[in-house]
Design brief:
The complex is a heterodimer. Chain A is of the alpha+beta class. Chain A folds into three domains: about 1-25 and about 365-530, Multidrug efflux transporter AcrB transmembrane domain (Multidrug efflux transporter AcrB transmembrane fold), CATH 1.20.1640; about 55-125 and about 355-365, Alpha-Beta Plaits (2-Layer Sandwich), CATH 3.30.70; about 130-340, no CATH class. Helices cover about 50% and strands about 20% of the residues of chain A. Chain A contains 16 helices and 19 strands. Chain A has helices spanning about 1-20, 50-55, 75-90, 115-125, 140-155, 165-170, 170-180, 185-190, 215-225, 225-230, 290-300, 340-350, 370-420, 430-455, 460-495, 495-530, and strands at about 25-30, 40-45, 50, 55-65, 100, 105-110, 130-135, 200, 210, 235-245, 250-260, 265, 270-275, 280-290, 310, 315-320, 330-335, 360-365, 425. Chain A is elongated, with a radius of gyration of 35 Å. In chain A, about 45% of the residues are buried. By secondary structure, chain B is an alpha+beta fold. Helix content of chain B is about 65%, strand content about 10%. In chain B, strands 2-3-1-4 form a four-stranded antiparallel β-sheet. In chain B, a hairpin with a 1-residue loop joins β2 and β3. The two termini of chain B are about 45 Å apart. Classes of the chains: A alpha+beta, B alpha+beta.
Chain lengths: ~550, ~325
């Protein structure tokens, strides 16, 4: 009798715990408000985390990009990248983002409720390596131009030799374009009609050249050639400008020759914020720390009247002339960039540069409406499945079937609570696994009931039949549960995202089904036997 | 007390040759279909590439969409209706690099918005998977199946004994092959969800085999004079009501998923439904004959528990 009290106590205790675990509580999440706008609101909700496939959002896998250069210490690179990505994501403002390391060269990022995947990808992926470099004043490129032309001819790198005549026709136009602004007459003279040098036109500013956008690919091909690279002026770097400028109906891109040694890097940056200023348009204002400011002042002081290129991720953002020594403050002009772009740039600058380039290995983006449809379909399927199960069980096992259904209700409650307590994520395959584990739970009941029936047929009393039925059904139930659980564990170990969700619900389902079938239903029978001490027949 | 199929004495095992013929025929048809199509259809999860699910406000002209995509430089895009007349899936499987595929998804957005306008469509889903991730996932999935086999074999060898474990695992291997044949016939794509379904089928099939083997184990202890053939038959018959009831309820659940679960979950539901059939079938007609064969090849030590000398059926014994 006291044994029965403990049993009931345990069941009720777990029930209370489950109800507490599932009580709707306040959470801040992205919601669609009544007026159609989307924003973060406090809502009361059952604390069950929904996976990206159910609430919509973005899943991204990043890996170290070694195409340009090999990375020596991958573990260190990924750990430091993880920190930077996490800071950026935190500032990006998403509720409950996930940023974690997978293996030793990958980072996964999960952003629930994101509807602008491209912007998010950019924020995460941007290296944000900021450098300030002085443009070349020694005409270094002009001096090697004829040698470069020679290499292109000699190695037959020219891909468009046939059309070369047509292309040179463009060149005079370009020359004409810059001859107005060209302050140095001799610089125009250095531009020959060689296959390399004809692509590059001086602009009058030392170290800055103009290239027709149509010629960019060809020139880029030359610049990547190892022979050409060996012949480029030593101690200099060649970088493209970030934006295309349209002048007199011609689209040109700037090419910069820079002193390879940066006067300062973004490491000294302490703050960055976007603003709009009258003439330059959108700018990002940044601030350097004291040491950075000191160095910056000394270096810029040495280079007054020189041009300083602001280089972000190997692209020159702008190259203003240094009027006087600059201290701790500076700005990056965004050209025609939007305020959004400026605020994203400020964000990545604040979070710091990525220690190594990252490449997107996988992106999955699920719209919120698709998720809502999936939930609706899953719930419909679940309800219909449960109705069918109830019909079959009660129709066949009568009173015992009703006990089984009561057990099933507790089973659903326990499983949900377990998922909520362990912080498991409910995904679409998870819902499928849940519907399926209902089948497993029913199977345990069926095994027990069939055994009890057999014992009754063999002429046992009701009490003994129930005892024996449970005892005989136990090995089969344990063996099946354990082997299914083992499969689920393997799935969890080797699966990713949705498959893991499935494994977790399956595991929770198996545990709850073992408990309800063996313990809860048994208790129900004991209660029934207690009330009907002289029972001679059992409705089963 | 209403009972179905209670106290039956069907000679299930007698038909094992016919059953073996049927299942081999089924698998051969499936595998021929597989070879003719040049292998399994892998989703971008495994091959790498781009999948986009779009909902249009109006039914689009698929032919024009296809032409526009090709004109936009997106060759080899596969366009498929998905669920309703306004929902489409665009697939581009690619050996393209990740950077390339990522650009592809942006290009699709651009091409489609040029065609039907910015408000004419909505992107419900966009997935881009790099080729390296894909091949790793494929290896991971295979590894998961093999490891779950090894673990199950060890568990069953410990709980029963190795002959049972081997038979159960071989029966399960049969189910995987049969399910792959089924997938080839229905042209189902191998995706992560499908792998999860396949692993569930493995679990379910094992479940069923274990229930019957548990009975066999019990009957072997109880009745030492019976031949294994008869014990197997008796065990299948005794567990028949449970089998019918359990399979009926699980099938009801998966049928509900199949019909009402929506397009995304449908391949999962198909495989589960088929898995229930093949799992039941293999417990009786694959696991049992294999157990008989193994017992004959590697007879037990006569002194060990559950020892069995004669494994032939009475009919076969008479024929000799």
């Amino acid at each position: 009798m006291s044994n029965l009290k403990y049993r009931i106590g345990l069941i009720l205790g777990l029930m209370a715990l489950s109800l507490v675990a599932l009580t709707p509580r306040n959470t801040i999440e992205r919601v669609k408000r009544a007026d159609g706008s989307i924003g973060f609101d406090t809502v009361k909700r059952v604390p069950l985390k929904r996976g990206l496939d159910l609430q919509g959002g973005m899943h991204m896998t990043l890996e170290l990009d070694e195409t340009d250069r090999a990375i020596a210490d991958k573990t260190d690179a990924i750990d430091r990248s993880l920190k930077v990505v996490r800071t950026r994501i935190d500032e990006f403002g998403v509720s409950e983002p996930v940023v974690q390391k997978v293996g030793n060269d990958r980072i996964i990022v999960e952003l629930p409720g994101i509807d602008d995947p491209e912007r998010a990808t950019q924020v995460v992926q941007k290296s944000a390596f900021l450098k300030f470099q002085i443009t070349d004043k020694t005409n270094a490129l002009e001096r090697v131009a004829s040698r470069l032309d020679g290499i292109v001819r000699e190695k037959k790198l020219g891909t468009r030799t046939v059309t070369a005549a047509g292309d040179t026709a463009n060149a005079p136009g370009l020359k004409a374009l810059f001859s107005d602004t060209g302050k140095k007459a001799d610089s125009a003279a250095t531009a020959t009609d060689g296959p390399f040098s004809r692509l590059i036109q001086p602009t009058g500013v030392p170290g800055i050249y103009a290239v027709m956008t149509t010629d960019m690919a060809e020139l880029d091909g030359y610049l990547k050639n190892p022979d050409i690279q060996a012949a480029l002026p030593p101690g200099k770097e060649i970088r493209w400008g970030a934006d295309t400028i349209v002048t007199a109906g011609r689209a040109v891109r700037s090419l910069y020759v820079l002193d390879a040694r940066p006067i300062i890097t973004g490491d000294y940056l302490t703050d960055a914020k976007p603003t709009q200023v009258p003439i330059e348009g959108t700018v990002v204002e940044f601030q350097l720390n004291n040491e950075g400011g000191r160095r910056f002042r000394v270096e810029t002081g040495k280079h007054v009247k020189d041009y300083m290129a602001i280089v972000l991720d190997d692209r020159v953002m702008s190259a203003p002339v240094i009027q006087s020594a600059i201290g701790t403050r500076g700005q990056i002009t965004m050209g025609g960039g939007s305020l959004q772009a400026a605020s994203d740039l400020a964000l990545v600058l604040r979070a710091g540069a990525l220690p190594a380039p990252l490449r997107v290995a996988e992106v999955r983006n699920i719209g919120a409406s698709l998720g809502a449809d999936s939930i609706r379909a899953g719930i419909t399927a679940g309800l219909i499945a449960i109705t069918l199960v109830i019909a079959i069980m009660v129709g066949y096992y009568r009173f015992s079937g009703v006990l089984a259904i009561a057990g099933l209700v507790l089973y659903v409650l326990y499983t949900m609570a377990a998922l909520s307590l362990f912080g498991a994520v409910l995904t679409l395959p998870g819902i499928a696994g849940f519907v399926l584990s209902i089948g497993i739970a029913v199977d345990a009941n069926v095994l027990i009931f069939e055994r009890i029936r057999e014992e009754i047929v063999h002429g046992k009393t009701v009490r003994t039949a129930i005892e024996e039925g449970f005892r005989h059904a136990l090995p089969a139930i344990v063996d099946t549960s354990v082997s299914t659980a083992l499969t689920a564990v393997v799935l969890y170990q080797f699966g990713t995202g949705p498959v893991r969700g499935f494994a977790v619900t399956l595991l929770a389902g198996i545990a709850a089904s073992l408990f309800t079938a063996i313990f809860v239903i048994r208790t129900f029978y004991l209660i029934w036997l207690n009330r009907n001490r002289t029972a001679e027949a059992l409705s089963i | 007390m209403y009972r179905i199929l209670h106290d039956t004495k069907y000679d299930f095992i007698r038909w094992w040759r016919t059953a073996a013929g049927l299942t081999i025929a089924f698998i051969v048809v499936g595998l021929v279909a597989l070879v003719m199509r040049g292998g399994l259809l892998y989703s971008v999860d495994f091959t790498g590439g781009t999948v986009m699910q779009l909902t249009f406000t109006q039914q689009p002209d698929v032919q024009r969409l296809r032409t526009a995509l090709v004109a936009g430089g997106l060759h080899g895009a596969e366009i498929q209706e998905f669920g309703s007349k306004t929902e489409y899936i665009i697939r581009m499987q690619g050996d393209t690099s990740t950077a390339g595929t990522e650009v592809a998804s942006q290009n699709v957005r651009k091409v489609v918005s040029d065609l039907v306008g910015q408000d004419g469509f909505r992107v419900d889903r966009a997935e881009v998977v790099g080729a390296r991730v894909g091949s790793e996932l494929r290896r991971g999935a295979l590894l998961a199946v093999l490891i779950s086999f090894a673990i199950t074999l060890m568990y069953l060898a410990w709980r029963f004994e190795w002959r049972f474990g081997l038979s159960a695992v071989l029966a399960t291997a049969h189910d995987i092959i049969a399910t792959i044949a089924f997938m080839a016939m229905l042209r189902l794509e191998v995706s992560l969800t499908v792998i999860a379904a396949l692993l569930t089928v493995i679990g379910y099939s094992l479940n069923d085999t274990i229930i019957i083997f548990d009975r066999v184990r019990e009957n072997l202890r109880k009745n030492r004079k019976e031949t294994l053939y008869d014990t197997l038959n008796r065990s299948v018959n005794e567990t028949l009501p449970r089998s019918i009831l359990t399979h009926a309820t699980t099938l009801a659940a998966t049928a509900a998923l199949l019909i009402f679960g929506g397009e995304v979950i449908r391949p999962f539901a198909w495989i589960m439904s088929f898995g229930i059939f093949t799992g039941t079938f293999s417990s009786i007609y694959v696991a049992s004959p294999i157990l008989m064969y193994v017992e004959r090849r590697f007879p037990r030590d006569p002194d060990s528990k559950g020892a069995r000398a004669a494994t032939v059926s009475p009919a076969q014994a008479k024929a000799r």
